[in-house]
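Reopening this ticket.

The earlier resolution said the output was attached, but the attachment link was broken on my side. Pasting everything inline this time so it's all in one place.
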Amino acid sequence: MKKLFLIPIFVFALTAKAQEQKKYNYSLEQAIAHAMTNNYSAINAGRDIDASKEKKWETTAAGLPQINAGVDYTNNFVLQKSVVPAEFFGGNPGEYAEVAFGTKHNMIARATLSQLIFDGSYIVALQASKTYLKYYQNAKQKTDIEIKEAVINSYGNVLLAEESIAILEKNKATLQKTLSDTKATFTNGLIEEESVEQLEITLTSINSTLNYNKRLSDVAYKMLKMTLGMDINDDLKLTDKLDNLTVSNLDLAFSQNGFSVSENVNYQMAMNFQEQRELELKLQKSKALPSLSANVNYGATAFKDEFQFFTQNQNWFNYSNMGVSLNVPIFSSLARSSRTQQAKIALDQAKTQLTETEQKLKLQYAAAKSDYEFSIEEYATAKSNLALSERIEKKQQIKFTEGLSSSFDFNDAQRQLYTAQQKYLQSMVDVINKKAALEKIINKQ
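Inline output:
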């Protein structure tokens, strides 16, 4: 009876798990769009922008009217006593009487309205809050660019693993047939056993490489899912093919469009850093200016020997006042001057870093452009070499079958073909990845 009870629970658990697993069929562009919304880094970068907007309002609110209210309650469970001449109360001259002043219970209800009228540092803080927001907007843009490149690389790695598996499966099937025919020939005494053993060695090597690529494919899929912000147990199918993606990325004209350093997000962030240092210098200078603020206070005080402040006959004694506060910095023993000089040095450092960033980006662009153009050349070479290797292997197979060449010659042709196949696949992935790297430098969205 207990087993019968567990069966529905087990079935329900399997059904719930199947419902939790999501299914996706994505092209590369769809995968990139998904990652822009669901990648973990992209989500937190968006939250950084939201937090910086709140920080900007916090800074703005510091210069707007502030209202504070409070209640103070004091329980004088032992009243402080003083002495006065006893003759005040009809006593003997020269004697003193103890007198307790105050009541056991005191309460004050108060409210304060304050307003900043002028403060140079507040004006600089408002400007800094805009720069602060701009920094996180640039950081979000940089994160999106890096995520796009990561998706392209991960997507290409999955396609590479899948294509490698397909080619290895084809090579394995062809080799198994050749091995079977060779064994039959050996049985008839028309070929040496060494030829059979050589093919068996090659087949074992192919099986090992095939198993490795299958494991690699599983890891590559999980890496891609992580980059997309998916659960690694979700079902993901890729709709783009490696050769189609490669052809669509063959664009030599793209690398000739030129490069504007100011459009690169790293340069923009370096500019943002310089602006922050400029504002820090302004902040130190603003501290030499006077500041002016005003406040209005209103309150009421009540006194009782018993805690009965909320009765109708309770007397509250009101008070109110208004004040203006002017603070004028006069002399700081050159401390302000020292802080200002430090801010100037920090600004000069930021300018130097901006120049360094500009030069590095130009160098990175030249390298990325060269790598992309070279990848296109390598792709054309690998494609041509693959066609040649296929023809050579085919000829050697015919010669080997007819007994016109040795197993070593056939084995060399096979290995040359397998190497050409892998180089061709890798050259296609390189074209895709190198263009992605160039787009990252150019800041192409």
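Reporter confirms the inline version is readable. The chain has nine helices and eight strands. The longest helix spans residues 120-187.
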